[in-house]
Amino acid sequence: MGDYYSCDVYACALRATTNIEKSLAKCKKWAFGARFFVTKFSKKQGDFVSFCTFVLRVSSRSHAMIQVPFFGQADLYSADSLRAIADTLTPHSVACCNWPDAFPYAPETELRLFHTGSHLVLDYTVREACTAARVSEDLGEVWTDSCCEFFLQPRGEGNYYNIEATCIGRVLIGWRPGREGAVHAQKDLLDKVLRYPSLGSEPFEERCGDNRWRLTLAVPAEALFADKIASFSGLEARFNCYKCGDNLSRPHYISLAPIATPAPDFHRPEYFIPIRFE
Questions:
Q1: b/e per residue, 23-36, with b = 16+ CB within 10 A?
Q2: Cα–Cα dist 126/215, whole Å
Q3: Cα angle at 219 between 232 and 213, to 5 degrees?
Q4: pTM of whole model > 0.85?
Q5: Domains plus CATH for the chain?
Q6: Does the structure show a pLDDT above 50 at 102?
Q7: Separation of alpha carbons 192 and 64, rounded Å
Q8: Which pLDDT score is estimated for 81?
Q9: By percentage, how much of the chain surpasses pLDDT 90?
Q10: Cα(241)–Cα(151) distance, rounded to whole angstroms?
Q11: Which residues in 156-182 are b (16+ Cβ under 10 Å) and which e?
Q12: How far is CA 65 from CA 94, 176, 237, in A?
């Protein structure tokens, strides 16, 4: 059904006008639906948005599974070693601007990931216009700073984990059924997350310009504390990845896989996509 990274269908939905055929022309990677839609649906913006929402939900359940490679000999205590491995991998673009009318800004964000069995390595590279790191402690309001988030549903349904980190490595991990009802990881567990931020670890006020930074995290399997998972090896799950910054001068909410909600909401596991750890 097309390349989900492009987010073409939802982008078209958000920009839809009464000229449905013109809007559909923008969805080049989703051309299979154009004739069907024009002939089967009335020319109304609401119908178009509903159709695109339906397509996104179907595609999130049906497209190819992302494979997370295994590097068992990686040196978890060397940022250079972890990044050297990450640099050999194809990046996943976090580029879905799901709410362009309200939040059009989309910083360049890429994720490379692999695992060692004991740890999941998340390597983010970001280029953005405004960067801030005001949160000084773990379990703070990390989403208000320049923040990358990785949501993982290890059993493919039910509760999921939100693993969130600022550009200086302040971390929040929760286990939850949705936006409400989170159980957060304890400090002793958060301390086991290895963090390698290129911007250092000291908080700072907002900086605007051509900002480029890299954040590498090594998250232990025990961070999935409610599921008692001993190793990532062989795990089949569902996930999504995000970049946000609520309190930046240019706030944004972008995702790896698209989300079809009226307003920004990352806590929507129905839009998670499949992932498998080798």
A1: bbeebeebeebbee
A2: 8
A3: 130
A4: no
A5: 4-62 (no CATH), 66-277 (2.60.40.1190)
A6: yes
A7: 32
A8: 98
A9: 76
A10: 6
A11: eeebbbbbbbbbbbbbbbbbbeeeeeb
A12: 16, 23, 9
For the record, the structure tokens of 163 come out as 């693993």
Over residues 81-107, mean pLDDT: 97
pLDDT computed for residue 115 by the predictor = 98
Helix (H, G, I), strand (E, B) or coil at 253: strand
pLDDT of 38-68, one tens digit each? 333 334 445 444 445 444 444 444 457 899 9
For the cut 80, the answer to whether the pLDDT of residue 13 exceeds it is no
74 pLDDT exceeds 50?
yes
- For residue 226, what are the contacts with CB-CB under 8 A and spacing of at least 6? 159, 175, 183
Please work out, in degrees rounded to the nearest 5, the angle formed at the alpha carbon of residue 86 by the alpha carbons of 253 and 2.
55
Distances (CA, A) of 156 to 175, 226, 235, 273: 14, 14, 10, 9
- Averaged pLDDT for residues 252-263: 97
Task: For residue 124, give both structure tokens.
Answer: 């983010």
CA 73 to chain centre: 27
Strand 66-68 to 273-277 pairing: parallel
H or E element that contains 57: helix 45-62
H or E stretch including 254?
Answer: strand 253-255
